[in-house]
Amino acid sequence: MSETASYARTPRTTPTRYRDRATWERAEIHAVLDSAWLCHLGFTDEQGRPVVLPTIYARVGDRLYLHGSTGSRPLRTAGRSAGLPVCVTVTQVDALVLTKSAFNHSVNFRSVVAHGLAEQVTDPAELAVALDALVDQAVPGRAADCRPANTKELAQTAVIRLVLDEVSAKIRQDGADDDPADEQLPHWSGLVPVRTVYGAPQPHPGTTRELPGYLADFQPGGPRG
Amino acid sequence: MSETASYARTPRTTPTRYRDRATWERAEIHAVLDSAWLCHLGFTDEQGRPVVLPTIYARVGDRLYLHGSTGSRPLRTAGRSAGLPVCVTVTQVDALVLTKSAFNHSVNFRSVVAHGLAEQVTDPAELAVALDALVDQAVPGRAADCRPANTKELAQTAVIRLVLDEVSAKIRQDGADDDPADEQLPHWSGLVPVRTVYGAPQPHPGTTRELPGYLADFQPGGPRG
């Protein structure tokens, strides 16, 4: 894949609504993906019915790696040669938007929707990269400060890869814009900021080591800026 | 549907992994649903490919209402008489679980996965209930303090209903349990609490009204306990 500034638009990455909120810019999409570590993985079951499961992911260049067990349903299916059709969605909420009319209420958010065929990672070198990335996506610096998986554990771990290709982001970062006809209504309007925060780390009773530097003042998105 | 204490178990609401984390208890499932207002809606497109989109929802008894536009893809499809096969997933993250081995790293979370046929709400009385619930799910008390949708706005709004029937929750609320063989390793282990918080409401410049009581000290899940 050439390193262009944008991913290609396709019919299914072109929203039917609020098209002005959509972007295919690589940097914007990567920024949203790098700000989170939880995604919702969509696939279809044997009867063609939709299934959506939460799981952790990591981005490495133009690849998303998703964590699973070798026994889990999507992972078993992704092991097939043709790959598993998936939709991976990441959503970050930034604010509740309260307007004077119920209709104009909204949410400020950043979301990424990626479509494609997921495949199970089988190459040991790629698997090692993916597993480190999955740990570091949530806690940057952690992969180098824990025991890597041993052979038995690796056999129980499966990772699927989705190449970012058919992907878009949708971003709303606006104010509480009331309709002109509503401006005189006696209701409060404005934004309620929403954010995810991390509390003080709680050591396991068996831990003798001091809190590592990467956990001091640790907050979402912090280490990546 | 009889008001039993549990939803029925079916093959697709019985996880293949960590079955001890699963529950079909109505009260537990409702508690998870009531603690959030964002879900990920999964359906399949015309080619049978999975699509996962974030949207807001509300729970009213054994019904989930999901918000959309009449022009959006899932809503158009749900207007068909047979309903739209969907999977609605709600995920709340409570902690990062850091163990001395990479393999045992985990996440404390509460999730609900609901399957079924979604239908568009067309009865005006039910639609009014659903729209109020959608506003109040995120901001309890707000529906009574804004202008309800007018006829033109109602025509642009669509709500789909999913009856809670084939639904389960999965909950992990454990510590950072290291393998006995790992306990002497020199790595930190423990929990990093994760929570969503609301910042101070930011009034729109045009707002003259004081901050309403339901927005004072407003935090996720607060009003519901």
TrEMBL record, chains A, B:
Q: Which domain of life is it from?
A: Bacteria
Q: Which InterPro entries match?
A: Pyridox_Oxase-rel, Split_barrel_FMN-bd
Stretches for region Disordered: 201-225
A single Pfam family, by name? Pyridox_ox_2
Q: What is this protein called?
A: Flavin-nucleotide-binding protein
Query: What PANTHER family does the database record attribute to this sequence?
Result: 5-NITROIMIDAZOLE ANTIBIOTICS RESISTANCE PROTEIN, NIMA-FAMILY-RELATED PROTEIN-RELATED (PTHR34071), FLAVIN-NUCLEOTIDE-BINDING PROTEIN (PTHR34071:SF2)
